[in-house]
Structures are given as structure tokens and as C-alpha cells.
Amino acid sequence: MRDLIKEAIADLKKGDGFIYVTADGSQIDLHDAAKQGISVTPVNPKAQVIKKLEETGLPLNDARFLNELNELISLVTGSSAAPKIAKRRSFSDAEKSKIVEEWKKVEAAGKKTKAAFAREIGVGYQTFINWLRG
To answer: Tens digit of pLDDT for each residue in 23-39?
Structure first.
């Protein structure tokens, strides 16, 4: 299984975007095939990897299986296998106005930069700038 995973990783990291297989399904380098006069078929490496893994009992196209596998990895390793995505927060017009007023006080005191203030309140710098523009 480990060798299959290593091979899958290598196939997906290849820079040319395709792997080439002969009529019998063997993988071959395109230049070697040309030298030997063998006809090849270009194959999307991702599709090929998924097919190989499914043949060994790992159904990667099954979302429920992937969720269970990620949960298992998380529980075994003690860390999350999938990155946590922060939920976007919406601010009402009143909240935006209060934040802009607070910024004006901070700016008058000369305590922080706009970027530092934006980070502190949890909004993107460009979003904060847009609020200031009105």
C-alpha cells in the first residue's frame, strides 16, 4: 500500500500533466515510447491514480468515505487532516460606522497603523479601507 501511495504521489507531481500508457496498460515515458516505436495513450494522472486506488479498495470518489478517512486520520494523529476554514463575518452598517469612529480616535492618538487596526478587529485591510472611503 505504501508503494502504491508513493507511486501515486510521484505520478501527480509530474510536471507535464499526463502520463502515458501502452496498449497493455503499462506506464511508459513518452520519449522511450517514441524511440521504441510504441504507440501510447495520454492519460490524466489524477484519473489513473484514483482508478488504481479504487482497485485496492480506497473509493476516493465517495465523499462519505473521504470524510470518514479524514476523521480517522484526525483521531489517530490528534490533528485535523483538513484545513479549518474560517467563517466569514458580516458587519451591519451600524457596526461599520462604530469601527470607523473608533479608528478615528486611534488615528488621532497615533497609536496604530490601519493594517494593524484591521487585523485587530478581524477584517481584511482592503475591506477596512473600503469602509473608510464610505
So the answer is: 888 888 888 888 999 88
